[in-house]
Amino acid sequence: MLSLQIEFEQGRRALIVRLKGELDHHTADVVKARMEEAIAKEHTHHLILSLKDLSFMDSSGLGVILGRYKQITNKGGKMVVCDVSPAVYRLFELSGMFKIVSIQDNERNAMSSLEVAL
């Protein structure tokens, strides 16, 4: 049983991915594969990653996020991360992830930042 749940919601131009649970070396490969597939399959231009219910993430999680960032920017899109918990925020800070990925407080702000109407 995976300690992580993934929920996808396709908006007009943005794919919203909500992660719930723990993103670590046990779940990273599955998350990577499911997200890659969703980005490739849907006509996804932008990606919003909601981490509101993500209780834990390690460096393999950072790798997954960075990889999807490259996948989406290679298509000319943008990626926004939102609802980051203090623990995950700290990991992002230490890794320099904020220099790469844009961050917003919530999904609505993330959508606005992409200039995509809800």
Order of helices and strands: EEHEHEHEH
How far apart the termini lie comes to 34 Å
Radius of gyration: 13 Å
Mean pLDDT score? 91
Number of strands: 5
Which structural class is indicated by helix and strand composition? alpha/beta
Helicity, as a percent range: 25-40%
Unreliable stretches: none
Strand order within the widest sheet? 1-2-3-4-5
State the major sheet. 5 strands, mixed
Percent strand:
25-35%
Question: How many individual helices?
Answer: 4
Shape: globular
Write a structural description:
With 118 residues, the protein is α/β, with parallel strands linked by helices. It contains four helices and five strands. β3 (46-57), α2 (59-74) and β4 (79-82) form a beta-alpha-beta unit. α1 packs parallel to α2. The termini are far apart. The mean pLDDT is 91.
Please give the structural blueprint.
Blueprint: E1 4-10, E2 14-23, H1 28-41, E3 46-57, H2 59-74, E4 79-82, H3 86-95, E5 102-104, H4 107-113
Parallel strand pairs: 2-3, 3-4, 4-5
Antiparallel strand pairs: 1-2
Domain STAS: 4-118
Keywords: Phosphoprotein, Sporulation
Protein name: Anti-sigma F factor antagonist
Record keyword descriptors for this entry:
STAS_dom_sf, 5-stranded mixed β-sheet, 118 residues, STAS_dom, alpha/beta
Concise summary:
With 118 residues, the chain is α/β, with parallel strands linked by helices.
